[in-house]
Amino acid sequence: MSSSTLAKSNLDYIEMADGKKVASIEHLVKWTHTRFVFNKDIKRVAVGHETTLDVQVVDGREILILAKKLGRTSMMVWYQDNRSETFLLSVTEDYSVLENALKDI
Question: Looking at the DSSP assignment, which residues form a beta bridge with residue 90?
């Protein structure tokens, strides 16, 4: 599973559904929103498998992603300067309830 990182990237940070700001992600949780914030203006975005993610450009430098279906897909971001960047994203189920139950045992 690949992660998105800030190395050589125009990505400032990723805001998870719980409000935490992180530099990288391992996966997106199904039926949650994640916000990608960039330091350049976005021209357009394309998703490899559109049933996996719903992607919207918000405010010119932000992308709001809704993880809709389990799986893995790519997201390409083109900037106003015609440069591009690709992210490989995975969508998983929410296992937090199970993880918390296991910690309690």
Answer: 72
The strand order across the sheet containing 28-29 reads 28-29, 84-92, 71-79, 42-47
Model pLDDT for residues 40-65, shown as the tens digit of each residue: 999 999 999 999 999 999 989 999 99
Judge whether 16 and 22 are in contact, CB under 8 Å: yes
Structure-block tokens of residue 69: 């279906």
Strand, helix or coil for residue 97: helix
Q: Which of 12, 62, 2 has the alpha carbon at shortest distance from 33?
A: 62
Helix (H, G, I), strand (E, B) or coil at 34: strand
pTM given for the model: 0.82
